[in-house]
Write a structure and sequence with these properties.
Number of helices of chain A: 10
Largest sheet of chain A: none
Number of strands of chain B: 2
Low-confidence stretches of chain B: 217-224
Number of helices of chain B: 10
Oligomer: heterodimer
Low-confidence stretches of chain A: none
Distance between the termini of chain A: 13 Å
Largest interface: A-B, 58 and 57 residues
Distance between the termini of chain B: 38 Å
Chain lengths: ~200, ~220
């Protein structure tokens, strides 16, 4: 249990996928303009990330690894994610229309979201067990949600701030993200001490 | 279009990282040293050239509706080749790039060029576009990597620089430094060119490379 909590909080805070590992920067900067969009996107990411982990972990350890096809990992994983996203979109559309209306628009963006592929590949690289992988993916998703929600608040202030002409738009957004990243550096070493 | 123009286009006028602001993930993540930045750039260049050529060859064979998954599979194949080559011959670079090597698959620059250029143009033009874009990407990563290494660690390609290596600005080589340096480079480009150089003005739906294939965009943009 303690070990699971350490994995969870490490993924959320210390190794935040967006601010410390630079995964999914495109969507982090693109969709964080409005809070509701940021939250919707984050839940779509959490959902797909957990599904993708549940699908890829058994594929790697029960099919690829015994057949010594480990090098096909990248090709197989991205195909599984693409198929999964398509499948989830169709199922939601047919059976849970309200959920489809709120998450549907974000799903096509998720195939090429590097946090998903990053999380499933990292679970294999770190040789996590199935339950550890699921916890790590949940943490990665929650970390993404945290970063998105916090940053959409920062963005709404930054966009109205009076900054030098050459910093308007992209540069000031990046500098704001840098300052948020500095604050996440403060969590380094916290988790180990928290669960001593 | 003039052949030379296609080649030079990706290096300066439409530099993928500095002008179009694409491929931000690798540009921020692996540029903590010059060598890593250039290594990542060259790996992505190889994938970009090969995928551009193959996609251009297959542009009539790939059905329009499933083109994005087809592109991803082609790109993933070449990424696997790069991974195996680096693992065999350059183990230290393979370890340093880590997960970002497999993430070349979802790099917006490569997918964007497939969508915007290779599926419309001839094989040779696509090859030139791949070379130009690749060089542009590598140069941008070299610039970021060099700046972060010189000021963050005080070395250049692991050679200490007198005066800087004793008291470097350590934060520039760490995670926040990537955002800082990238933001400042774009701001300086804006200043020097009076806001003309950087084509992508903000992070929104229209400037996303997946725009054409994204059903979210058809419904009025992500999150609307």
């Amino acid at each position: 249990m303690k070990e699971m909590l350490i994995i969870l909080f490490t993924a959320i805070l210390v190794e935040n996928y967006v601010l410390m590992k630079f995964l999914a920067i495109c969507s982090f900067l693109g969709v964080s303009k409005k809070l509701d969009a940021a939250v919707g996107m984050s839940f779509a990411v959490i959902f797909v990330m957990l599904m993708a982990t549940a699908a890829t972990w058994p594929i790697f350890y029960y099919i690829l690894d015994p057949m010594e096809l480990g090098y096909m990992q990248t090709v197989i994983f991205i195909l599984v994610i693409a198929a999964l996203v398509q499948l989830v979109e169709m199922i939601l559309k047919k059976f849970v229309p309200p959920l489809y209306r709120s998450l549907g628009v974000f799903l096509p963006l998720i195939t090429t979201n590097c946090a998903i592929l990053g999380a499933v590949v990292l679970n294999i690289t770190k040789t996590y067990t199935f339950s550890q992988s699921m916890v790590n993916s949940l943490g990665a998703g929650l970390g993404y949600l945290l970063a998105m929600v916090l940053f959409s608040g920062v963005r709404s202030r930054v966009d109205t701030a009076d900054v030098p002409e050459c910093f308007k738009g992209i540069p000031i957004t990046l500098v704001a993200a840098a300052i948020m990243s500095v604050s996440f550096m403060g969590f380094t070493g916290m988790v180990e001490n928290l669960f001593k | 279009m003039n052949k030379l123009k296609i080649l030079v286009n990706g290096i300066i006028k439409e530099n993928p990282v500095l002008v179009l602001v694409l491929g931000t993930c690798p540009a921020l993540a692996v540029t903590n040293s010059t060598i890593n930045g250039v290594g990542m750039g060259l790996a992505a260049t190889f994938v970009l050239i090969c995928s551009n050529v193959v996609i251009s060859l297959l542009k009539k064979a790939i059905p329009d509706k499933v083109r994005i998954p087809c592109y991803i599979v082609i790109i993933a194949g070449f990424v696997t080749i790069v991974q195996l080559m680096l693992q065999a011959y350059m183990k230290s670079l393979y370890d340093a790039l880590g997960i970002f090597l497999s993430l070349i698959v979802v790099n917006c620059v490569i997918l964007g060029r497939a969508e915007m250029f290779a599926n419309k143009n001839s094989v040779f033009d696509s090859f030139l576009d791949g070379v130009g874009m690749g060089i542009g990407f590598t140069l941008a990563l070299f610039l970021m990597g060099a700046l972060r290494e010189i000021f963050g660690v005080g070395t250049f390609c692991n050679i200490p620089i007198p005066g800087l290596s004793s008291e470097p600005i350590a934060i520039l080589a760490q995670a926040p430094g990537g955002f800082f340096v990238y933001g400042f480079i774009i701001a300086i480009l804006n200043k020097v060119s009076n806001g003309k150089a950087v084509k992508r003005k903000s992070f929104d739906c229209e400037s996303c490379p997946s725009h054409a294939g994204c059903s979210g965009a058809l419904k009025g943009g992500c999150g609307r």
